[in-house]
Structure formats: structure tokens, C-alpha cells
Amino acid sequence: MPFPYQITAVEGRARAGVLKTARGEIRTPAFMPVGTAATVKALTVDQVAATGADIILGNTYHLMLRPGPERMERLGGLHQFMGWDKPILTDSGGFQVMSLAGISKVKEEAVTFASHIDGSKHVLTPERSIEIQADRIGADISMQLDQCVAYPADRDAARKAMELSIRWGARSKARFGERETQALFGIQQGSTFEDLRRQSSEQLQEIGFDGYAIGGLAVGEGHQAMCEVLDYAPEFLPADRPRYLMGVGKPVDLVEAVWRGVDMFDCVLPTRAGRHGQAWTWDGPLNLKNARFAEDQDPLDETSRCPASSGYSKAYLHHLIRADEILGKVLLSWHNIAFYQALTAAMRAAISEGRFERFRRDFHARHASNG
Fold first, then answer.
1. Burial zone of 165 (CB within 10 Å; 0-12 exposed, 13-18 middle, 19+ buried)
2. Which of 116, 169, 221, 287 lies at a CB distance of 3.0 to 4.6 Å from 225, suitable for a disulfide?
């Protein structure tokens, strides 16, 4: 394995650990801010790093359309291009296969799709996905190409997508080969069917990956259904490798997933919510558009080291959002990323100190008391 994974503490099924990469350590549980098009929206890399993020995520689909993988390579890869010197994980483009179903076609050999930008036709094979991620973009962690089905999915559709993902996983691994400073993760599929996820996990382990993701969730199934899958899905994966829940989610999703044995997360929610006037806090989400904040002189979190959280009043943030000022989107996005990093740091500490179950109860109680 190119990246040693050390589990430093366990409480129940929750784990704290460190994934050691060539570009630095990733402390788990970890939240990866999403840098879709070589940027975490509205923020500089210095701002992102200052929140405590150890790793960010890049999007293969968007980067292959612009600026293009070959140009990315000529410009030194994604790290140099955007000025981020810590680890980067790239998704494979598989999620866009589902989300762009109206302009894509999946066959055994590849997925063919039309660009949402200019309608140009593109073909993405497992081999091309790995070439773009590992060789052109220069990702530290690449993901196998997979097929993700929407929810609800009937059993036959879920089975076919899972089996295709296994075959694509084998092709992705063959193209990736063995590398000393880069890693490849496989993706468990199977929708909400326990036996399919077990089969997927067993076959992925036969292929052999450096880490394993749980895919096919956060696609409309809701929090309860997601938790029901997570009651068993992480346990099917190797205990000595990182487990990554793709595309999740709200703070409560992270807490419940960590309790069930998940180590890594990504989601666009913090910055997307920030751009629309929503701040995530220890007391739950706040809509800064609401008139009740018009004269609220308290900051979002006076204990936070993030300037956006502690240095501006809610009244000022309310004004910026209502006036549609760019600074409002910047500050709330910055605050939200900082909050997610504070949340994962608090979970790491709670697991290490043997008090995660109490942390989980207190988290739910505080949110419930605030509606």
C-alpha cells in the first residue's frame, strides 16, 4: 500500500486515524472541501488551508471539459495549477454519469456523454478516467470509474450497475498499476440492497485497492435510509483501510456515519449553502436572510479561529446577503468550511478520548433543542 493508514483510536465502530501520503497526513475522520473546477468556490487556497483541511477534492468531469486534461498536465498538474500543496482526491466522473443521464449513454466499454457546456461529445472509459486523474491531473488519490444508480433503484438495475462497476474497477486497477506516491480507491455499489453491497465489497477486495468508498448514497434516499445502509455497508470493507462515504453531507450525516465506521467525506453543501445565505453552526443551520438577524450583533461563533466565524456580526452578514454582495458569499462559505473542519476535529478528539457516544448524544440534543 502506498499510503499507510494508522488507526489511532476506536470507540465502538467509530475510528480516528491518520492516512499518510506523499504530500502530507490526512487526519480522519476527514472532510474534503470540494474544489469542483480547480477552486473551492469563493475561497482562496490559503483560506481553505487555514480552516484545517488536510485534503480537497477535484472533479474529473469538470476538469476534463475545461481547462482539459492535457492542458492541466502541461501546466504542472492540479496542485501547481491552483496552488494547493496538500493532498488532492479526484472523483472518477461516475457520478455525472447518473446526474447527466439525459445526455449520457452507458455501455460496457465506456460512457459517452455530451458536454453541458457546449454539447461536444466525449467518451470516458475506466482507463481514460485513470489517465486523466493520475497522469494528467496528478491526483494523490484517484477513484475507479463506476456506475451510480439513482434512488429508488429496482434490484435488477442496482445489480447490473454494481456488476459493471466491478468490471470497470478491475480495468481501472489494471490501468493504474502499482505506484509509490499515488493511491487508487475502489467504490462499493449496490443501492439499498445488503447482499449486493456485500458482493460488491468481496469482489473489490479480490481486485485489491488502497482504500474503499461507499458510493450510491446521497442520491435522494434520505437520512434514515442512508443510515440503514451504513448499519452494514462499512463493515463489509477492510478494517485496515480508509472508508470514504462519497457526496455526504449534512453535519448530522457525518456524525452518524462516523458512528458507523466511516472515515472520509466530501460534499458541496458547505459552500453551496454559504452562497445562498445559510450558515452551519453547533446549534444547527441559520438562514442569514431572515429578518431576525438584522440587528444581531453576535458573531456566528465567537470561539472559532476562523475570521469569518468570529470577526463579523450576524447583522453585517445579513446585510451582505440581502444586498447580494459577493463578500457575504465568501464569508459564509469560509465559515461553513471552517465549521465542518471543526466538527471533524471534535469527532477525532472525542473518539481518541473515549467519549464519542456522549458527543453524539450531545450533538443531537443541542440540535433538537434548537428545532
1. buried
2. 221
